[in-house]
Design goal:
The complex is a heterodimer. By secondary structure, chain A is mainly alpha-helical. Chain A has helices spanning 2-32, 39-53, 59-82, 90-112, 136-158, 160-170, 172-177, 182-207, 217-230, 235-254, 262-276; strands spanning 117-118, 126-129, 132-135, 210-211. The longest helix of chain A is centred in the first third of the chain and has 31 residues, at 2-32. Chain A is globular and about 60 Å long. Chain B is built from ten helices and ten strands. In chain B, the strands form two sheets. Chain B has a six-stranded mixed β-sheet, with helices on both faces. Classes of the chains: A mainly alpha, B alpha/beta.
């Protein structure tokens, strides 16, 4: 029982991180219709910014700086690398995104070296909860993700800007005919995605206080998997896919016999779901225009 | 001075020339129609004038502004919008939310309630279905919604691209009545239609577009009486 509960809490917390990252993938895909494979590396950049500003021993300052820096970086990447390619073939955009990903990783390696850096943002300790010991940081992660996701859902549904985002994701031309500045909406989308990635970077450091230039690579791919499982372009889908993947991963790690195959199991789930439901759980069927 | 003046407009899709330098104008208060066969360049004209597709050369002036290079969303703020071909309502949003999007360019929200009531009065079906997801509406209702959504932005000039397409004869008549009504309320109309008979009947002036060129122009009645239009577009 204790084992189940602690596994579940860890899974939900890990799933929350995946969901945060997956939201960045899915919103950018929904609105700019591109796969931003450099998104995972924003997590790593966020981590390094926290590492740098922890020199002042002020976690809140470090987190704030990470969010601000990542937002500016995300907007800059979009303007410099992706905007000139609007209307180009999806393959060109995809390759550019992969190039940006390597660029960020290499820059981090040049600046910070290839050895892992250690940084403790804040030690929350652990508590006894219904007879099991859980890391408070896992609970904090879970709580923050729930708040962020709720806020984002309400923002998209009930604000003028949020509705403009839905309009752009559905039909860029019609959105422009409403007077919506599509480029502006794309910029805002990248900003939101990057802010979420910075928070994900924080959560990784809370889980394990070590950072390297490839910190964001695997979480990026896992979160992308989560976004596709949930239905790429769908915000609730990204949340669902993230949580699902996090819980599966957490359970799989606890079962000795299959623990080494955890990644393989997660990606197999992706393949199976794509075979059964090619649009993911909550994805829309794309109707071909005639 | 004309409200909308298009001079020598050329549009290319890659190397293919879709508009070979067309010129036309729309004066305040008029209903002007472009008629032409499939592929003549009607939709291309509409989309390039409103800034949705790039122009190769030529100039477009609207209400005293040179809008040749102005992006579409800014043109909408100047007071020109379009009901695009195929309606293109936001399928996932409700009827009400679609109308809300229509008012996106209106910064002052104090008149929103009145505008909304006016739309619901003009289109009672939309009032009945205001909380329904727009994608579930019938074709006719979607056309009403697309027109209502466009009117929410208070356009001085409303462009309508094939508003009667795919509608039953009864609804087609209704759509043309509504266009006349909107015009009477002070909105200038630029219309693109394959239904030449009905559109010429309500038009002050009209142009015939063939293979990316304007080949004929005149008043609605003149064109309806012309032998060439009768042969090609009115089945005479």
């Amino acid at each position: 029982m204790e084992l189940i509960l602690s596994t579940l809490i860890n899974g939900l917390s890990l799933g929350g991180i995946y969901a945060m990252i997956a939201l960045g993938y899915t919103m950018v895909y929904g609105i700019a219709k591109m796969l931003n494979f450099a998104h995972g590396d924003i997590i790593m950049v966020g981590g390094y910014v926290i590492y740098v500003f922890m020199a002042f021993h002020n976690p809140l300052l470090a987190i704030l700086m990470a969010v601000v820096f990542c937002v500016l970086l995300g907007i800059t990447i979009e303007k410099v690398a992706y905007k000139p390619l609007r209307g180009a073939s999806p393959l060109a955009v995809l390759i550019t995104a992969i190039g940006v990903s390597y660029l960020l990783q290499s820059l981090a390696q040049i600046i910070f070296g290839s050895a892992n850096k250690m940084v403790t943002v804040y030690d929350f300790g652990s508590v006894k909860f219904l007879g099991v010991t859980v890391q408070v940081s896992a609970l904090v992660t879970l709580a923050v993700t729930v708040v962020v996701m709720t806020a984002l859902t309400l923002f998209v549904k009930y604000t003028r800007l949020g509705r403009a985002m839905i309009a752009v994701s559905e039909d860029k031309g019609a959105a422009q005919l409403m007077g919506i500045n599509v480029d502006g909406i794309i910029t805002i989308t990248f900003a939101i995605g990057s802010a979420l990635a910075a928070l994900a970077g924080l959560f990784y450091l809370l889980k394990a206080p070590s950072i390297s230039s490839t910190l964001g690579a695997m979480p990026g791919i896992k979160a992308f998997t989560a976004a596709v499982i949930g239905g790429i372009g769908s915000i609730p889908g990204a949340m669902l896919g993230g949580i699902l993947l996090g819980v599966v991963e957490s359970i799989s790690y606890k079962i000795t016999a299959i623990a080494p195959y955890t990644d393989a199991i997660e990606f197999s789930i992706l393949i199976i779901i794509l075979l059964v439901r090619p649009t993911g759980f909550l994805g829309k069927k794309r109707r071909e225009k005639v | 001075m004309a409200m909308l003046e298009v001079k020598n407009l050329q549009v290319y899709y890659g190397v293919i020339c879709a508009l070979k330098g067309i010129s036309f104008e729309v004066n305040e208060g008029e209903i002007v129609t472009l008629i032409g066969a499939n592929g003549a360049g009607k939709t291309t004209t509409m989309q390039s004038v409103v800034g949705l597709i790039p122009k190769r050369s030529g100039t477009v002036t609207f209400d005293g502004h040179d809008i040749t290079q102005t992006p579409c969303h800014k043109i909408v703020h100047l007071g020109m919008t379009q009901v695009p071909e195929g309606r293109r309502i936001f399928q996932e949003l409700t009827v009400y939310e679609n109308l809300l999007m229509g008012a996106y360019s209106i910064k002052d929200s104090s008149g929103f309630k009145n505008d909304l009531d006016a739309i619901y009065t003009r289109f009672p079906r939309l009032a009945e279905r205001k909380n329904q997801i727009a994608g579930t509406l019938s074709g006719g209702e979607q056309q009403m919604l697309a027109m209502g959504r466009a009117i929410m932005s208070h356009p001085k000039l409303l462009m309508l691209d094939e508003p009667s397409m795919g509608l039953s004869p009864l609804l087609v008549d209704q759509v043309f009545e509504i266009i006349k009504d909107i015009n009477k309320d002070g909105t200038t109309i630029l219309l693109v239609e394959q239904n030449a008979g009905k559109s010429l009947a309500i038009s002050d002036r009209a142009y015939v577009l063939e293979n990316g060129r304007i080949v004929l122009s005149g008043t609605g009645a003149e064109l309806a009486a012309s032998e060439m239009v009768q042969k090609a577009y009115l089945g005479g």
